[in-house]
Task: inverse folding
């Protein structure tokens, strides 16, 4: 697979630019000279085997890591200067207040973030079959994952970054959850970037794929181009 040359329509500046980005941790180079440009209004999947650098890539986009070399721009701003108003980052970790109910969590988030839309959050709660009155410490891990996604999607920000949003979800509901998730994204104004190991389920819903292997960008392509070159399946390993 090869990387594509991009052409952008006038006035359609990209939401994310990576220019020769490397990220080094003590004793480990997680990413090496990664460059790509993500247009607005797309669904992007970041795939690769364990330890290939996916989460590091997402944290750089969200401004949670600074590049060791190179430059990351989000909406024209250096990622190091981003605030929580620009990007939502949904981490793999389960962060919640166990004593709160679903509805109280929505109200709490509404008080935290000026761009939080409580009506949209409650619509998502219903779409994900959650009980607004249920307390989080009584909820299953899968239901807490749904709530976590609902709270992230209710923010009106240009970039939503999700690290493994499907982890902890029953394989039988993953596809319907991801379809619901995508249906709530405002494609005129928002871009979604997510990592996943569930490539088969998610692939039909993606516009583009970033494939990383051992810290290197192997491909950044539209899904249909990958199909044309490799048949119907993405190859992760
Ligand atoms: N804070 C850190 N300090 C040291 N090494 C780190 C740190 N964060 C990540 N790494 C290392 O960088 C490499 C890439 O990690 P990363 O978490 O980005 O991979 P990943 O593709 O998301 O993996 P997984 O699929 O298992 O979540 C790994 O070898 C990891 O151990």
Result:
């Amino acid at each position: 697979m090869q990387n594509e040359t991009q052409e952008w329509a006038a006035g359609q500046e990209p939401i994310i630019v990576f220019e020769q980005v490397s990220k080094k941790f003590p004793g480990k180079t997680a990413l090496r000279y990664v460059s790509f440009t993500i247009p607005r209004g797309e669904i992007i999947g970041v795939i690769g085997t364990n330890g290939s650098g996916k989460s590091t890539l997402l944290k750089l986009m969200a401004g949670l890591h600074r590049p060791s070399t190179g430059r990351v721009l989000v909406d024209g701003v250096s990622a190091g200067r981003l605030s929580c108003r620009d990007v939502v980052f949904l981490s793999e970790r389960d962060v919640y207040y166990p004593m709160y109910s679903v509805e109280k969590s929505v109200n709490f988030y509404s008080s935290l973030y000026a761009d939080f839309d409580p009506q949209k959050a409650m619509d998502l709660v219903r779409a994900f079959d959650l009980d607004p009155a249920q307390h989080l410490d009584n909820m299953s891990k899968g239901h807490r994952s749904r709530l976590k996604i609902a709270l992230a999607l209710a923010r009106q920000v240009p970039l939503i970054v999700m690290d493994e949003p499907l982890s902890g979800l029953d394989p039988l509901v993953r596809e319907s959850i991801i379809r619901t998730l995508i249906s709530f994204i405002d494609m005129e104004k928002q871009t979604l970037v997510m990592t996943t190991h569930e490539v088969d389920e998610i692939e039909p819903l993606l516009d583009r794929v970033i494939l990383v292997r051992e810290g290197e960008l192997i491909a950044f392509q539209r899904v249909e181009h990958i199909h044309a070159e490799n048949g119907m399946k993405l190859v992760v390993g």
